[in-house]
Design goal:
Structural class: alpha/beta
CATH architecture of the largest domain: Sandwich
Strand content: 15-25%
Helix content: 25-40%
Largest sheet: 5 strands, mixed
InterPro entries: Catechol_dOase_N, Intradiol_dOase_C, Intradiol_dOase_core, Intradiol_RC_Dioxygenase
CATH class of the largest domain: Mainly Beta
Keywords: Dioxygenase, Iron, Metal-binding, Oxidoreductase
GO molecular function: catechol 1,2-dioxygenase activity; ferric iron binding
Order of helices and strands: HHHHHEEEEEHEEEEEHEEH
CATH topology of the largest domain: Protocatechuate 3,4-Dioxygenase, subunit A
Pfam family, one: Dioxygenase_C
Oligomer: single chain
Family: Belongs to the intradiol ring-cleavage dioxygenase family.
Number of helices: 8
Shape: elongated
């Protein structure tokens, strides 16, 4: 027998067969039971719960759709291409989660609405960690990126008290509907910035009027939307993320009213309370006062109301208690 060539040897992990032999499957029901049974010895109960439910629902999906081998292989290829499309500044898997409504659902479950607090919205795939620090009242956008907009307001708690020195990260597309990361010649961050609320919770910065835009259609997710005849547009919005010691991180967005896609956001991110009205600076004096070169200038007056960590945890626990499965028995 000839000696095999050089190979990269696979190494067995330290775990042996299940304590009880699995029955050889004579039908698909036994196969599903076996696939659930092999997770019985998972030491972490939460891991066991998640993976057994994942198997249960995946197997149910396969059975309910009577999926063909060719269709399943196409699914695997689709997921492979989704991963291959990801880069350090593009997350195609987040995009897939978004258009299936999963991101919005996870967000809703983990951030239940609390009276008086600002509601959350989807994070989206275009956040970056390299935003510049922006002084109070300065601009997050370079000149020529779109129509001027002044953004100002306060960061408060649910009792109406100011939250000083809160870190506010904000990002948006330019007036052409592109995030800076979509430009191949991107050298520095643009239309995004990081700033602080002052001692009384006030914040203020210059931005541009957001516009609706299509999410990237040059990858697997875009092809999927075309396959099912779904539009790939998001309504105009401004992303905001706020953190402060002792407070629950707020990830949200605001959506100017009147956008044609506000009721059919392709990633299901819009909530009624997040649809906002833009005002306008009337006088040249006001325009120059806020640091703009000329008009017109739209104005977004928006207070953001934070929950404390304790308040957020209490709200989340109520949802968890309400959603506890009555039957947690596994095969």
């Amino acid at each position: 027998m000839s000696t095999p060539g050089e190979v990269k040897k696979a190494i067995s992990n330290p775990f042996g067969p299940p304590k009880e032999p699995l029955p050889l499957p004579e039908n698909d029901e036994i196969l599903t039971k076996n696939a659930l049974k092999v997770f019985d010895e998972t030491p972490n109960p939460r891991h066991k719960f998640i993976f057994q439910n994942l198997v249960r629902h995946l197997h149910a999906f396969v059975k309910e759709t009577d999926i063909s081998t060719e269709e399943w292989m196409a699914t695997i290829q689709f997921l492979t291409e989704t991963g291959q499309k990801c880069t350090s500044i593009r997350q195609e898997f987040i995009l897939l989660s978004d258009v299936l409504g999963v991101s919005a659902l996870v967000d809703a479950i983990n951030n239940p609405s609390v009276a008086g607090a600002t509601e959350t919205s989807v994070f989206g795939p275009f956040y970056t960690e390299d935003a510049h620090d922006v002084p109070f009242g300065e601009s997050i956008a370079s000149e020529g990126k779109g129509d001027y907009m002044l953004v100002k307001g306060r960061v408060l708690d649910v009792q109406g008290q100011p939250v000083p020195n809160a870190t506010i990260e904000t990002w948006e597309t330019d007036g052409f509907g592109f995030y800076d990361t979509q430009y191949v010649n991107r050298e520095v961050p643009d239309c995004r910035g990081r700033l602080q609320s002052d001692k009384d919770g006030y914040y203020q910065y210059r931005a541009i009027v957001p516009v609706s835009y299509p999410i990237p259609g040059d990858g697997p997710v875009g092809k999927m939307l075309e396959l099912v005849h779904r539009h790939n547009n998001r309504p105009a919005h401004l992303h905001v993320m706020i953190e402060a010691p002792g407070y629950h991180k707020l990830i949200t967005a605001v959506y100017p009213e009147g956008d044609p896609y506000v009721t059919s956001d392709t990633v299901f991110g819009v909530k009624k309370s997040l649809v906002v009205k833009l005002d306008i600076l009337e006088s040249d004096e006001e325009i120059k006062k806020y640091g703009f070169k000329h008009g017109p200038v739209k104005v977004l007056n928006q207070d953001f109301i934070l929950l404390t960590e304790q308040q957020a945890a209490e709200a989340r626990s109520k949802v968890t208690e309400a959603n506890i499965l009555k039957d947690t028995t596994f095969f």
